């Protein structure tokens, strides 16, 4: 069971993917998926037992919804190669 609830603000940037920030994080955390973002944050907060709650802003919600419908280009497609 988790001891503490930890809220993280999430936005979406076409070049970086999902970007999370919170006062307890030293720097923004990025990932191509929300699941990957949650795992990275949980790894950074070890050994703390926290319940990570992602709070999506409008850009992140739109991207999540578009991906669920299957019509979005992946964030990795927007990155320069």
Structural account:
This protein has three helices and four strands, in the order βββαβαα. By secondary structure, the chain is α+β, with helices and mostly antiparallel strands. It has a single domain, classed as TTHA1013/TTHA0281-like, CATH 3.30.2390. The longest helix has 12 residues, at about 60-70. The mean pLDDT is about 85.
Sum up the structure in keywords.
81 residues, alpha+beta, TTHA1013/TTHA0281-like, 31% strand
> Quick one: overall form?
elongated
Structural class by helix and strand composition:
alpha+beta
- Reading the helices and strands in chain order gives EEEHEHH
In the CATH hierarchy, the third-tier topology is known as TTHA1013/TTHA0281-like
CATH class group: Alpha Beta
- The spatial strand order of the largest sheet comes to 3-2-1-4
Model regions low in confidence, pLDDT < 50 over at least 5 residues: none
* Assigned CATH architecture: 2-Layer Sandwich
- Total DSSP helices: 3
Radius of gyration: 13 Å
Termini separation (Å)?
A: 42 Å
Relative helix content: 25-40%
Number of domains: 1
Topology (SSEs and partners):
Blueprint: E1 4-13, E2 17-21, E3 29-31, H1 34-44, E4 50-56, H2 58-69, H3 75-78
Parallel strand pairs: 1-4
Antiparallel strand pairs: 1-2, 2-3
Short description:
The protein has 81 residues and is an alpha+beta fold. The protein has 3 helices and 4 strands, in the order E-E-E-H-E-H-H. Helices cover 33% and strands 31% of the residues.
């Amino acid at each position: 069971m988790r001891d503490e609830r930890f809220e993280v603000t999430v936005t979406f940037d076409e070049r970086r993917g999902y970007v999370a920030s919170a006062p307890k994080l030293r720097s923004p955390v990025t990932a191509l998926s929300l699941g990957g973002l949650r795992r990275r944050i949980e790894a950074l907060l070890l050994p703390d037992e926290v319940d990570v709650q992602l709070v999506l802003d409008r850009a992140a919600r739109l991207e999540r919804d578009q991906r669920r419908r299957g019509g979005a280009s992946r964030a990795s497609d927007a990155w320069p190669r």
